[in-house]
Write a structure and sequence with these properties.
Distance between the termini: 69 Å
Strand content: 15-25%
Structural class: alpha/beta
InterPro entries: GalU_uridylyltTrfase_bac/arc, NTP_transferase_dom, Nucleotide-diphossugar_trans
Number of domains: 2
CATH topology of the largest domain: Spore Coat Polysaccharide Biosynthesis Protein SpsA, Chain A
Largest sheet: 9 strands, mixed
Shape: globular
Number of helices: 11
CATH superfamily of the largest domain: Spore Coat Polysaccharide Biosynthesis Protein SpsA, Chain A
Organism: Enterococcus italicus (strain DSM 15952 / CCUG 50447 / LMG 22039 / TP 1.5)
Strand order of the largest sheet: 5-4-1-6-11-8-12-10-9
Number of strands: 13
Order of helices and strands: EEEHEHHHEHHEEHEEEEHHEEHH
Family: Belongs to the UDPGP type 2 family.
Protein name: UTP--glucose-1-phosphate uridylyltransferase
Keywords: Nucleotidyltransferase, Transferase
Length: 315
């Protein structure tokens, strides 16, 4: 395969920009998301999108573009200064809370509206002017990642060595391949870093080339925008980012970094509830009470061996 070299300057650039698509309608969480951005739903006391922004900052990202849509204004408000609130907390001596509030405003954030939800690839394309001729990170808000080294930082480290696009993947149960984009891996060039032959969108288990599924972090070179501008609609009649990356892989190397940390899927109700419980169990304010509650609830469920019913169910 005739790969295009990146030896003309773009590979010398540091990765300092991230794009967070947040224009989805959040229909899985209706009615809660009818008037509230899904990305603002809290895990204990912190909106999910704040976890994504914090991962970016811990990885050395300096500029973040959030691609929004209708009803997403609360995201902008959350990361904007609230002088009245800050003054109130300061006057009452609530320095710990003041620090938490100020942390959300000391970020170099930009926003752009995706007027029509035409797919993830289309959302990323809205970032072309923001990104310019630089490598950048795409971070999806449905995936919270936990590892000693942030996953975004791992991808940046790989880029510093390869100067190529690198997609985060994770080993999943073989029976679940039809739920994910799956890579067809080539040689393992470094521990956990694979050349990618091609991508297969949601294959049945007997058709899957591997159990390595694409998860919500991508490091991309700016050439992806040329591909996206000419990309035909794919699954769901939308511009699919995976399709564009597969096309890019025909002219530039694309690697896959296998993530070995903990991934929290907050894209559906059950995953969101599990994540809330796990984060609650490490939250300093509630962890002891929550642990005791779970233990007692477990005893009650074991004793009854049936679902707990509310008082309304007995009326």
């Amino acid at each position: 395969m005739n790969f295009q070299s990146n030896d003309k300057g773009v590979d010398k650039m540091k990765v300092k920009k991230a794009v967070i698509p947040a224009a989805g309608l959040g229909t899985r969480f209706l009615p809660a998301t009818k008037a509230m951005a899904k990305e603002m739903l809290p895990i204990v006391d912190k909106p999910t999108i704040q976890f994504i922004v914090e991962e970016a900052l811990k990885s050395g990202i300096e500029d973040i573009l959030i691609v929004t849509g209708k009803g997403k204004r609360p995201i902008e408000d959350h990361f904007d200064a609230n002088l009245e609130l800050e003054m109130n907390l300061k006057e009452k001596g609530k320095e710990d809370l003041l620090k938490l509030v100020e942390e959300t405003t000391d970020v170099n954030l930009h926003f752009i509206r995706q007027s029509h939800p035409l797919g993830l690839g289309h959302a990323v394309l809205q970032a072309k002017a923001f990104v310019g001729n630089e490598p950048f990170i795409v971070m999806l808000g449905d995936d919270l990642m936990d590892d000693t080294i942030p996953l975004t930082q791992q991808l940046i480290n790989d880029y510093d060595a390869t100067h190529a696009s690198t997609i985060a993947v994770m080993e999943i149960p073989h029976k679940d391949t039809s739920k994910y984009g799956i890579i067809n891996p080539g040689e393992q060039v470094n521990p956990g870093l694979y050349n990618v032959k091609n991508f297969v969108e949601k294959p049945e288990p007997d058709q899957a080339p591997s159990d390595l599924a694409i998860i919500g972090r991508y490091l991309l070179t700016p050439e992806i925008f040329d591909v996206l501008e000419n990309q035909k609609p794919g699954a769901g009649n939308e511009i699919q980012l995976t399709d564009a990356i597969d096309t890019l892989n025909q002219t530039q190397r694309v690697f896959a970094r296998e993530f070995k940390g903990k991934r929290y899927d907050v894209g559906d109700k059950f995953g969101f509830m599990k994540t809330s419980i796990e984060y609650g169990l490490i939250h300093p304010e509630v962890k002891e009470k929550l642990r005791s509650f779970i233990i007692e609830l477990g005893k009650e469920l074991s004793a009854e061996d049936q679902p707990i019913t509310s008082s309304k169910d007995n009326e």
